[in-house]
Amino acid sequence: MKATGHDWAAWLKILDKAGAKKMSHQEITEVASRNGAGMWWSQMVTVTYEQKRGLREVHQQSDGFTSNVSRTVAAPLDALYSAFAKWLKKQKATVRKANANKSMRITWPDDTSVEANFYAKGDEKSSVAVQHSKLASAAAVKEKKTYWAGVLDGLKKDVES
Description:
The chain has 161 residues and is an alpha+beta fold. The protein has helices at residues 8-17, 25-34, 39-52, 77-89, 138-160, and strands at residues 60-61, 64-73, 94-99, 103-107, 113-120, 126-135. The protein contains 5 helices and 6 strands, in the order αααββαββββα.
C-alpha cells in the first residue's frame, strides 16, 4: 500500500514481530503509526491484521458487530426522510436524536443501535445509509442486512411510486 509504505505481507511481519497478537486494538494502532501509517491507515492496518490473525471477525467492532445497508432513491431528500420517519413511528424503537433530512440515531427494541444518514444526490435523487451496530454475532449481521434491505427496498418502492 503506497499510503503506508508497506504491503500487507510486510505489515503482518512487522506486527507479528512486535507481538501484536497479544496487544489491544489501541496498542496495535500505535505500532502501525510508529511504522508509517497515518491515523486512518493505522486503523485499517489494525483491523485487517486482527481479521487475518483471527483476533476479529469481519463486521466486528469493539462493541459488537455492525451491519450496513444503503439505497439510492429517485425522489427528493425530504420525501425519503419523511417516509423513513413515518415507517419508524410504527416500530418499537426510540429515536435518541434526529436532524431533519440528515440523520437519526435510534435505540432498537433489543438495545442495539441504529444510525440512519440521508444524503441529497440532486433535486430528485437521494440516498439513505443504515448502520445497525452492537449486534451479538456475525449471524446477526446477516440477519440485519436482510432485514434492512427489505425495509429500504419497501421505502424505495413507496417513495418512487
